[in-house]
Amino acid sequence: WSPADALPVCLTSPTVAILGSGDFSRSLALRLVASGVRVVVGSRCVNRIPSGLFPDAVELRNQEGAVSQAVCLVFMAVFPEHYCSLLGLQSALAGKVLVDVSNGAEMNIHGPSNAERLAELFPDSLVVKGFNTVSTWELQTGAHDGSRQVMICSNSTEGKKKVVQLARQMGFHPVDMGGLSAAREIEVAPLRLFPSWSGPVVVTFLLFLFFYGYGFLRGILLPFLAQGGHNAFYRLALDLVNESLPAVALVTLALVYFPGLFAAWLQLWRGTKYQRFPSWLDNWLQRRKQLGLLSFLCAALHGVYSLCLPLRRITLHSVSLKVPHKSSEPWDELGVWRSDLYLSCGVLGLGVLSLLAITSLPTVGNTLNWREFTFVQSGLGYIALTLSIMHTLFFGWDFAFHIEAYPFYMPPSYLLAVVVPCIVLVCRCFLLLPCIFTRLTRIRRGWESKLSQLCIDSKLRSIPQF
Ligand code: NAP
Fold first, then answer.
1. Which run of H or E residues covers position 403?
2. What is the distance in A from the centroid of ligand 1 to the CA of 80?
3. How buried is residue 135: exposed, middle or buried, by Cβ count under 10 Å (0-12/13-18/19+)?
4. Helical residues (DSSP H) of 35-79, grouped into ranges
5. Ligand 1: centre distance to CA 263 (Å)
6. Which of 66, 100, 251, 358 could disulfide-pair with 17, CB 3.0 to 4.6 Å?
7. How far, in Å, CA of 125 to CA of 453, rounded?
């Protein structure tokens, strides 16, 4: 079954030509036909195209025949290296809109983009860049699945208008990226590998390495060397991972709220919101969602690992479990309080974190107004952070005050993990003090201190006037 079977071809719609009969051409033709557009495919050798490759509604012609049938739109579904081989069609393509669907070959190529080179080769045509960010699979599934955005740019308003209209007819969301100079950006877009995730993933990974390495040194390697063969290396696969994950989750969650506080303190110090933040802070602010999701991932993994640990013990001691034995340990009420509070805070913290993760999904986030979104992401976020800190502190209980907690002068890793989150909470509490809160609110509503105005005036005076 193909989408083309579902819809009849609208015989009155202007014919669109596609040059090239490869993978992209086939998927594009399918989608166009399914959207009610008449399509003619131009190939160097029509006889080579196997029957049934294109829907019956698609006309197959040689390149000249296809271009002459196109009313105004021609898709260039050939690789940019082969644009020169189409120079013979220059006069036939004059005045028509050429849609360049090509992707860049590499990320860092200098010089003109494929679309700009096409515009140089065909100066009498209107070149529009677009559809390259859509894969053949997305073209075939179209409006039902996959990304629906189509980035478009051109120096011709008329050409862009026609492509935008067609993209809408095909069920896509066209995004106007401006003039043809934006083509380079659009061409390399499909080559990028999670650009907004790389920083947060590296930070999370480094934090994990740090806590895992620290735990290995403190709990396994140094005792092994000092006590002459005390072997605890079995802890590497499960225990130590489970010890490191909550620490990473906690610090990463604190890193979500740290840049917001930093920005607030910067605005208070500057006395204005009209000065740009440094670019590193800007970047950090834009990566908060990714950091939050990674924190949620680590916390969820910690939950699963914690459930696995008793399983391991049961497997190991299955034989001894078969023999019922009476516990000789006395009832430790304080210990029960400790473990119950610690578990309860952990479960609640994970629950609130899940809510935050769900609301960060565009489909859910879009249903909230700005106030609701801020309440969830900021209000509930701080609740999650507080619960996670309490979970860690209840876990540590009074152990941190005992000298045995510092073998080789190394504090336990949960103590290290709560430092940044505690700083974040304290800074946040200071921001809520009425004198500070009122000033920050005024600044965010456009008020500026006299000092900041003087600074801006002197800066403006130092810029040469023409
Ligand atoms: P393809 O399967 O190799 O098809 C390219 C077609 O170009 C050939 O079938 C050939 O058709 C035609 N062609 C015209 N002149 C040619 C020449 N001198 N030498 C060789 N072939 C020539 O490639 P494709 O995957 O469809 O990609 C086509 C364009 O779409 C590329 O610029 C690519 O970057 C872009 N694109 C592809 C995808 C994708 O998912 N495949 C996604 C986005 C963008 P005839 O033999 O019938 O002339």
1. none
2. 9
3. middle
4. 63-69
5. 49
6. 66
7. 52
Strand partners, 152: 176
**CB count in 10 Å sphere of residue 91:** 9
Residue 4 in this model has a pLDDT that exceeds 50 = no
Q: How far apart are CA 301 and CA 141, in angstroms?
A: 34
The domain ranges of the chain are: 15-191, 197-318+334-462
Query: What is this structure's pTM?
Result: 0.76
Radius of gyration of the chain (CA): 31
Residue 8 has pLDDT above 50, yes or no: no
Q: Tell me how far the alpha carbon of residue 26 lies from the centroid of ligand 1, in angstroms.
A: 10
Pocket test for ligand 1, best of 24, 129, 149 (most atoms within 8 A of CB): 24
Taking CA atoms only, the protein residue closest to ligand 1 atom 35 is 102
Residue 6: pLDDT band (50, 70, 90) is very low
Hey, what are 408's tokens?
């080789």
Query: 201: left (phi > 0), else alpha (psi -120 to 50), else beta?
Result: alpha
Six-digit token string for 464: 């040469």
- Residue of 18, 19, 25, 49 to mutate, ligand 1, most atoms within 8 A of C-beta: 25
Task: Say whether pLDDT at 111 is over 50.
Answer: yes
- Please report which confidence band the pLDDT of residue 237 belongs to, taking 50, 70 and 90 as the band edges: very high
| Topology classification of domain 15-191 | Rossmann fold (3.40.50)
383 CB burial (10 A radius; 0-12, 13-18, 19+): middle
For the CA of 76, the closest atom of ligand 1 is 29
The owner of tokens 């009849």 is: 8
